[in-house]
Design brief:
15 strands; single chain; 17 helices; 47% helix; 3-stranded mixed beta sheet; 576 residues; flat; 4 domains; 3-stranded antiparallel beta sheet; alpha+beta; GMP Synthetase, Chain A, domain 3
Length: 576
């Protein structure tokens, strides 16, 4: 019990020795007071913000880029369901994070958001007695809405409107007109469409409408810029190369340059050859249709297409024949002697006519030798190749162990020229040219070694000025935080002020110490602290051993002391 009473007396004594907080604050210098007030205000503000943030539910985005019409319907539905929401700029609607998915599904069941465009759902509730014109208009509106939704799915497009002009069908081919389409795009701030993306939209619209040619599709952005006429995806008919054609030319030049380096590097070394190739390509589309006829007269071979022959013949007739008249009807004269007389002309004619007749017809048709050719030349034909190759001097080892740069001989240059011509597909008739130059390459190490230290330092500082400024600013901020904020706070926490020590010393010894005596006592305390560290450790171990022995001898007293410690104020325990 004596130990318990002693502990209570020590606690009361420590309460009397405890310094007043207000007095300690008043004894601080003015900068310390201001810093303490700022830190306390910052801690209080952080605590208030933390409490408010903990009480406020975490909001997550429900929909973005919502139109005014859809936004009003969504907010009305949220108000009916008593769901808190936040409406931000840009059509952003946010709800508590724990219900965002459920709300999104509920709104989807109501058909929200509609997106401002109607699609093929317009045809779902079509009336039975609708006219053909109304049905055609609804179908065109549905196609326009679906195309607008597809275009809005692109990352750079905020909204889109599509207008289709589909002509009425007619039975006359000459009067039939092609459909046309126009697209109005509203792009996100800071976003732009390149030629390939604009061409993709053009092909998307053209492929969605029957008989809609690509040239009849027009794209305009919100600023009125015509995107469908960008030079990136024109067909090059105006004499200029489009983006794809330029890429093809660059790829061809890089391919030929790599071929030259690949074939020469094993001979002259990896870094001893540089090659540049320029190609001229013809991207014009040429179609030729020719029809040739060849004669069938000799010596050309003739081809018979068809042949027809007809032959008619008739024999002698028993009826009277000959030339009618008096001459043929004269009686023969008196025969006085066997004298042969010539037949009269009429008798001869009659005799010949009575002998028979024949007729033969032949019809022969020859095939016309005709040749029809339809030739379409390939797009992207090489018209000319120009190659420039620079080869470094060859390095020859010397007897003294050094290396000497020696120019190539003319046969070696000719050999390299022949290799380059074979690698690029040289064609003299096409006008190709290959030039090989042998020159000494500048040694980069020698250039660097020739610079002075100050020149190198100046170049480095100029090249890294921005990085150095950033590092210096960060270093200044860290130094200020270390010496202006952290160090004073730690010094106040670790070392109590001298006035408090003087007051404590006056209470203990009954005499207050002056500033000089206090400074001297601090120095002596620092010197003695190291010597007393070992003694304190031994005393602490001895106290632990004595506490164990007391717990074995009188457990009730130890329990009483521990109970006093538990019920005591933490500040009192710290003072003890």
């Amino acid at each position: 019990m004596d130990d318990a009473v002693l502990a209570v007396e020590n606690r009361e004594a420590s309460q009397g020795e405890r310094p007043n907080l207000i007095q300690s604050f008043n004894q601080l210098p003015n900068p310390r007071k201001l810093l303490t007030i700022v830190i306390a205000a910052a801690v209080l503000a952080a605590a208030v913000i933390g409490v408010m943030w903990a009480r406020e539910p975490g909001y997550k985005i429900l929909f973005t880029n919502v139109s005014d019409k859809d936004g009003g319907q969504i907010i009305q539905s949220l108000q009916q369901q008593n769901i808190p929401y936040k409406l931000d700029a840009g059509g952003v609607i946010s709800v508590p994070g724990d219900v965002v998915h459920n709300v999104r599904l509920q709104l989807a069941s109501q058909g929200l958001p509609k997106g401002g465009m109607v699609g093929f759902e317009l045809l779902d509730n079509q009336k039975f007695g609708i006219s053909q014109f109304g049905e055609q208009v609804n179908y065109q509106r549905a196609v326009e809405g679906e195309l607008a939704r597809s275009i809005e799915s692109l990352s750079a497009v905020a909204s889109a409107r599509v207008h289709l002009a589909i002509p009425k069908q007619t039975v006359y081919l000459r009067e039939q007109q092609k459909p046309t389409a126009s697209v109005l795009l509203t792009l996100h701030p800071g976003r732009m469409l390149d030629g390939s993306q604009a061409a993709g939209i053009v092909h998307l619209v053209s492929s969605s409408v029957p008989d809609l040619p690509i040239k009849n599709v027009t794209i305009v952005d919100q600023n009125g810029n015509l995107l469908s006429n960008m030079p990136d995806f024109l067909d090059g008919g105006n004499g200029s190369l489009n983006q794809r054609q330029m890429i093809l030319v660059q790829q061809q030049e890089e391919l030929l340059s790599k071929r030259i380096q690949k074939i020469l590097e094993p001979i002259v070394g990896a870094d001893n050859v540089k090659a540049e190739v320029t190609v001229q390509m013809d991207f014009s589309e040429v179609e030729q249709a020719s029809e040739q006829f060849k004669p069938n007269s000799p010596p050309n071979a003739s081809a018979i297409r068809s042949e027809q022959s007809a032959e008619n013949s008739a024999g002698a007739s028993s009826q009277a024949s000959g030339v009618p008249g008096a001459l043929s009807n004269q009686p023969p004269g008196a025969a006085s002697a066997p004298i042969t007389l010539p037949n009269p002309p009429g008798a001869a004619a009659g005799a010949d006519a009575g002998g028979g007749s024949s007729r033969k017809e032949l019809t022969r048709n020859y095939e016309v030798d005709k040749k029809i050719e339809h030739v379409k030349q390939q797009v992207g034909i090489l018209k000319r190749i120009n190659a420039a190759v620079v080869v470094n001097f060859k390095r020859v080892p010397q007897k003294d162990g050094g290396i000497k740069s020696v120019p190539l001989t003319q046969p070696e240059i000719n050999q390299i020229t022949n290799l380059v011509q074979e690698a690029v597909g040289y064609n003299k008739d096409r006008g190709d040219s290959v030039k090989v130059v042998n020159a000494a390459f500048a040694d980069r190490l020698l250039d660097i070694a020739g610079k002075s230290f100050f020149e190198k330092l100046t170049e480095y500082l100029i090249a890294h000025t921005t990085d150095l400024i950033k590092v210096m600013l960060i270093a200044l901020v860290l130094v200020y935080l270390l010496f202006g904020v952290v160090r004073p706070i730690l010094r106040d926490v670790i070392r109590p002020n001298r006035e408090q020590r003087a007051a404590l010393a006056g209470q203990d010894g009954g005499v207050a110490l002056t500033a000089e005596e206090l400074a001297q006592s601090e120095v002596e305390a620092e010197v003695v602290a190291e010597a007393e560290a070992g003694a304190h450790l031994a005393a602490f171990s001895e106290m632990i051993q004595r506490a164990k022995e007391m717990a074995k001898e009188d457990p009730r007293m130890v329990a009483t002391v521990i109970r006093e410690w538990l019920t005591a104020d933490p500040a009192d325990q710290k003072a003890q």
